[in-house]
Amino acid sequence: MRNSLVQQLEREILPLLEVHGVELVALEWFQGAGRGMLRLTIDRAGGDPRVQDPTRGVAVDVLTHVTRDVSTALDALETSEAVVIDVPYQLEVTSPGPERPLQKRADFERFIGLKCRLDMGPKYDGPSALRGVLDGARDAGDDFIVVLRVSGKVVEVSSAMIARARLEEIARPKNGKPGKPGATASSKRQERLKAREEARAINEEHLRKKSSEGASSASSHPAPVEGGVEHADGAISPSGAQR
User: Fold this and answer.
1) According to the model, what pLDDT value does residue 241 have?
2) Who has the most CB within 10 Å: 25, 184, 224, 227?
3) CATH no. for residue 112?
């Protein structure tokens, strides 16, 4: 589920998240044609999609501060060549949104009973995606086995065969008239818009810095790997740099 680049970056990023009092939900690398995205999903400690309280999400200023600190840390790692990312990429820091990513074995055990989707890797001999209800996980050597109930049948798949896993959106109780969000929904939308504006400012500053440092430099790009960029709900904080 996670490649060596993601595992290496995770070790460097975790201490920064502890300083900000948030936990890592998922760290994902997506690469398309000649460009990549590093998506960092964070949440308050103990965050749970079953708790339907919008005030318990990650604050906008926390998303912005984490974006700035992680972007600075990535620059330092690349300058020292401790980490080398050979393609232009963006950093995206976001809250989980309605479809929370699942990566660790503990995730699959913690959310037993919830619906999820498993996007399977190319080596999996079966359907490209599985949808069902989580029924836990168990050890299997260096990996672990995810247990899923699909149409009443128990299906077991190795985590090594899963390209991406995420919970499916939990239905929220209706509040007020259809098509007319309440004050809480409106204020949360304004917070997300504000976070996007702040993220754009961080990204522009980052790109100007990189442009001035190496406007005339050219970089070689490795062959694209499988994957693509998806958009997640929540405040998005991109920070990309030409290499």
Assistant:
1) 37
2) 25
3) 2.30.30.100
